[in-house]
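Supplementary Text 2. Reproducibility record for the structural model of the 119-residue chain.

All settings were left at their defaults, and a single model was retained for analysis rather than an ensemble. We include the record here because the model underlies the residue-level annotations in Supplementary Table 4.
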Amino acid sequence: MRTTGKVGLGMAGLLALGDVAMPLISDGEFPPMVVALVALAFGVATLAALLPAWRGSRAAGWIVVVTRLISVSGAVPAFFVSGVPAPAVALAGTGVVLTLACLVLVVPELLVRRVAVAR
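Retained model, structure tokens:
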């Protein structure tokens, strides 16, 4: 994986760490504890796939992509549910933007097939 893909994986790792911390920083209402625990599970799955993806495993790279997409989908209701505090909406928006940036960096690297040339 080239540098751009590794930057995206690094971003995914930081986002996953945020997911892992979410149950600790949640007040149980914003985000709901169920959402925080689901985010924790997908954060752990992302972290587990990061090292193999960094080393070039395309399957692990796709696991990172899918877990980040599922995790960020938990933030989308913050934009539509009434009564969500503005800081929580801003944090959700930041998470969505950073996740999309991460995916823009990682997915093209996963779609490229590298062929080793024998010399």
